[in-house]
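Please review this pair:
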Amino acid sequence: MRIAQLAPLVEPIPPSGYGGTELVVATLTDELVARGHQVTLFASGDSRTRAELVSVTPRALRASTEIPVRRWAAYDIRALLELERRAGQFDLVHNHMGWQALPFLRALPCPTVTTCHNPIKGYCQDIYLSCGDLPYVAISEAYRRLNHPDRLNYVATVYNGIDTGLYGGDCDGERGYLLFLGRICHDKGTREAIEIARRVGLPLKIAGKVDPADSDYFNSQVKPCLNDTEIQFIGEVALDQKIALYRQAIAVVYPINFDEPFGLVMAEALAAGCPVLATDRGSVREVVADGETGIIAGSVDELVARFPEVKEISGGTCRDRAFQLFGKERMADEYLAVYSRLTASRRSRDS
């Protein structure tokens, strides 16, 4: 099958640090190529891929200091115009870029599908709803339930996949700390993670990026708590550093304050044999099995009270769940089934 994967341009594919969507796109694209499909990836020029790479910018936009943020949309449009120019070469176009691409997709001569990676916010809601008849894939049942289930044409739910083989194996030494990994912000619950670590008497390592919009939160809620022994801020980490952190952590602390669409960190932690402590929001119960691969609770107080249960959780059980539900093989199988249904439906309409 000739497949176009349309990626966001803000980060490279795969990301050098933070970037869940970009990591999923990289994993899916390379798995499709490995299976013999002819894949073209529309992404930034510094991306690394086994597919044919088409780019309208030499570097990811976040790394391109010469391109101001106000001009980023122009590069999205250029990528979409290039996709439109080449559209006759593809059997299907898979959109991961988001709302920017939707008006272009309707005019393409081949089937399309859009994976919804992020919650639909007010600033782009009208665009999604005006294109609600296009095919969409949700990354969790929670995503579908919380994002216009009666207005968008969801054709499947496909969990994000990872290369589980990278995370497996025995832990690197004794597990000796709690880990918070992700964007440093209120939604992700960084301050709550610090509170949990203090109350259970364990050190906490914090790994992630601080966006400009979250700098006030970091400076007021996180930075005053930092020290070298108890609460340590590592910053943004690459994949190999991230895996090492998972393998040495007692648990990943995930006290989110919003309805998480998926939560790739949870799947990665499980693949490394690391339990997850999470608040009961969004897709958490689809990723973590309460009492088996982690602790799911309604509050920080409850997570602290149930923390002793962590020692009863088997790393092997965590890994088994990740391999069964979140492996790249399952993700590719399910997307290929979606592609086949959509292309068959288009052929039937055209005949």
Notes: Residues 328-350 form the longest helix (23 residues).
